């Protein structure tokens, strides 16, 4: 069995589908995860979401030990978390950052990003499709 690709979601992403649909769309996180599992075929997908910063840190550490790559949407922690930045810098498998919306085109407080400088690549503004592109990118980066 090959090592899983971790798909990690941060705070409020559990509300996708009903949360500000004009910004984040009508798809739920379960919809996105199900599509990724279909697309990934025999590569296992370990999909998780949490509203807690420390849990995301622990999962990034776990993915570094036990996974082949990470797709990360850290939600609002993207803009605040030095702890996430440090965990990502220590992570030895490729990480691709995803955002449904394009934070660069939004409020000033979203222009600060602690994730981007610590990951391989970032995809933003493409809704759920960004996760599909991230899956292709992680697979190619990890040789899967
Ligand atoms: C988000 C963008 C963040 O700024 C925001 O805090 C989120 C969602 C996105 O996917 O567009 O929670 O990460």
Give me the secondary-structure topology.
Elements: E1 5-9, H1 21-24, H2 29-40, E2 45-49, H3 53-66, E3 69-73, H4 82-90, E4 95-99, E5 121-124, H5 129-142
Parallel strand pairs: 1-2, 1-3, 3-4, 4-5
Helix pairs in contact: 3-4
Descriptive notes:
It is built from five helices and five strands; from the N terminus they run βααβαβαββα. The longest helix is centred in the middle third of the chain and has 14 residues, at 53-66. With 144 residues, it is of the alpha/beta class. The mean pLDDT is 97. A five-stranded parallel sheet has the order 2-1-3-4-5, with helices on both faces. The protein has a single domain, classed as 3-Layer(aba) Sandwich (Rossmann fold), CATH 3.40.50.9100. Helix 3 runs parallel beside helix 4 (82-90). The chain binds 1,3,4-trihydroxy-5-OXO-cyclohexanecarboxylic acid (DQA). Residues 12, 73, 75-76, 78, 99-101, 103, 110 line the site of 1,3,4-trihydroxy-5-OXO-cyclohexanecarboxylic acid (DQA).
Q: Could you estimate the helical fraction of the residues in percent?
A: 25-40%
> With helices defined by DSSP (H or I, 4 residues minimum), what is the helix count?
5
Tally of individual domains: 1
Strand order of the largest sheet: 2-1-3-4-5
Which strand-content bin applies to the residues? 15-25%
């Amino acid at each position: 069995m090959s090592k899983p690709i971790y798909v990690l979601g941060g705070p409020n992403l559990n509300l996708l589908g009903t949360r500000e649909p004009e910004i984040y769309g009508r798809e739920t996180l379960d919809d996105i995860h199900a599509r990724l599992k279909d697309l990934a075929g025999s590569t296992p997908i370990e999909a998780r979401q949490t509203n807690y910063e420390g849990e995301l840190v622990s999962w990034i550490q776990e993915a570094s030990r036990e996974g082949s790559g990470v797709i990360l949407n850290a939600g609002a922690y993207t803009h605040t978390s030095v702890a996430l930045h440090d965990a990502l810098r220590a992570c030895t498998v490729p990480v691709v950052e995803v955002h449904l919306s394009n934070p660069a085109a939004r409020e000033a407080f979203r222009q600060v990003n602690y994730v981007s400088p610590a990951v391989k690549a970032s995809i933003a503004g493409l809704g759920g499709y960004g996760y599909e592109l991230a899956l292709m990118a992680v697979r190619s980066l990890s040789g899967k």
